[in-house]
Amino acid sequence: MEPRALDSRRLRTHGLVVVLLALAVCGQARAASLRHIQTDVLDNEGLTCCVIHLSAEATHACRDYLAEKNYLILDIYGIYPAAAERFITPAKGPVRQILVINRAASETQVLTLVFYLTDTHRYRIFAVRDPFRIVVDVFHGASANAAQELTTGATLPDSASRQAPGVPTRAAVGAAPRSPLPAPSSGKKVIILDPGHGGNDPGAVSSIKVGGKKVLEKDVTLAVAQEVKRLIDASPNMEALLTRDRDVYVSLGDRQNFCQRHSPPICANLFVSVHCNFSRARSARGLELYYLNPTGATRGSRRYLEEYENRNGQNQSPLNHPIFASLARESFQAWLTEGRVVCERFKAAAFQMPYYRGNGNRENTVQSAFFKVLFQADMPAVLVEVGFLTNATECQRLADAHFQRQMATALYNGIASYFRARDEQFVPNYLAMPAVP
């Protein structure tokens, strides 16, 4: 008897199932999932131990902000599915809380744990196999000087080894190594200048022509930011970085990545985003300075401005950003205060210009709003609207190189004034306001 021929539809179905199963197996092999997080306060060993149990090996990295902000961040890459976001609060010890959140980076999903400590404490982070887990030990004795030690071959505390013994693959005490970045000159304050818009995103466009063409926000912001950078770089104790130095499009995601690469304590101390304003009311004019307000603006004009400036966010939610999670806690009010202080210093410096003194805007000069770009930086961050392109008189001034130099000088003096207020060792080199012919 001859064997019965296979039905072609059944053959295709079986083949599809095999392919899907193979893809599923490969996907599981490449990704790891979070099983659970175990935290124990071990008084007899003098440490708090946090063990992150994973289904497979995963790459991880640590960012140390203990000296500046009393927290450290552990990133674990390629974790699927997303873990439940929550706070873990040990009953006692130097670890006040552990924030567990998810975020996206470089086409992979990252599980991020933010460890908020009571003070600078010695710690170690290492991985253990069979089964795989990552261990974070925070020692109860405060020791700022021990952060540079590096050891290998550390053993697991009892709490980590009770359920599954393993062999440590790496152990570090103190600060984990960071990605190499260009370090600023010794003692210099570093400012990130962010010229708004660029490339195929012109920003606001004037309603009149100056010199035979419309004035574009992207051109004014770049000119002002470049002049501010020139003044800063010429000072002995400051230097500046630009998120763009020419007419190119820079997305909010790219600006975020730029800030993350230069976040403190590695590099930058202040983030300033430069923009031009616009309004349906053609009479609107003057300077507006914004600091972060996660609840959003309350007045209609500011809500409209938020929508406009956030339009190229590509549906990225800053609420999932680890820095927002940090802001949302007890340090949140301090961040708002810092942003407002920077704005007040800018206002005082800008009002040295006769034009701004005599031409106030229709709302308060210093305001707060929900601008996504201000979420990008783990540092004080402000947004400066140097004037209204929709006001015919002000538009002509914003397009004038002499006025741009005045505005840049005011921003420079405001930056120097802020650092002087926050660092008694900082010696400002204030500049005279250039005259407008």
In a few lines, what is going on in this structure?
Helix content is 29%, strand content 29%. It is α+β, with helices and mostly antiparallel strands and 437 residues long. Helix 4 crosses helix 11 (401-422) and helix 8 (332-350) crosses helix 11 (401-422).
Characterization of this structure:
There is one protein chain. By secondary structure, the chain is α+β, with helices and mostly antiparallel strands. It folds into 2 domains: 33-173, Sandwich (Immunoglobulin-like); 189-422, Zn-dependent exopeptidases (Aminopeptidase), CATH 3.40.630. 29% of the residues lie in helices and 29% in strands. It has helices spanning 8-30, 66-69, 158-161, 217-233, 252-261, 300-309, 322-327, 332-350, 354-358, 392-398, 401-422, and strands at 34-42, 47-54, 60-65, 71-77, 86-88, 95-105, 108-117, 121-128, 133-142, 168-173, 189-195, 205-210, 213-216, 238-242, 270-277, 288-292, 366-369, 381-388. Strands 14-11-15-18-16-17 form a 6-stranded mixed beta sheet, with helices on both faces. It has a 5-stranded antiparallel beta sheet with strand order 1-2-9-8-10, with no helix packed on it. Strand 1 and strand 2 (47-54) form a beta hairpin. Helix 8 crosses helix 11 (401-422). It is elongated and about 75 Å long. The model is unreliable at 1-29, 143-185, 297-304, 313-320 and 326-331 (pLDDT under 50).
